[in-house]
Description:
With 179 residues, the chain is an alpha+beta fold. The chain has 3 helices and 13 strands; from the N terminus they run αββββββαββββββαβ.
Amino acid sequence: MSRIGKQPIPVPEKVNVTLNGLSLTVKGPKGELSRTLPDGVSISQVDNTIVISPSTDKRKSRERHGLCRSLVANMVQGVSQGYSRKLEIVGVGSRAQVKGKTLVVSAGYSHPVEVVPPAGITFAVENNTNVTVSGADKELVGNEAAKIRAIRPPEPYKGKGIKYEGERILRKAGKSGKK
């Protein structure tokens, strides 16, 4: 049995959880998320906690037990506190700005790259080089941050590009010059 899956999920006061079979809807101050859990798990709400357990002793049920618990816990935390991912733009002339809801990134190409956020995602830019992607859905926030990083991934020689905050870039030595 999964050690993570055994733990009950506490539900904050501001969050409303609706169960309909394996369909789950979570509403909170930061938004609303819904997900249908896979077969092999059962979900129940006891007072202010959500309990997920495997419905059978088969391997598939035991595999999905911890996964489903983590997915539901991320939904509850997302609608109550939200998630954010920070990116740093490194390089001369590279910058970002928000126009309306669209993020416009100038990263050394001949044209600026525009990123349109999906529903539930917001972009914020500080000092033209620090981008914050925030929203209620952890998966969607991570995917959008990865798309922005993929515009110009950091290169190993000078470290220029778009990287996650705190990401360590392995640097390489350049060509050795004449002595």
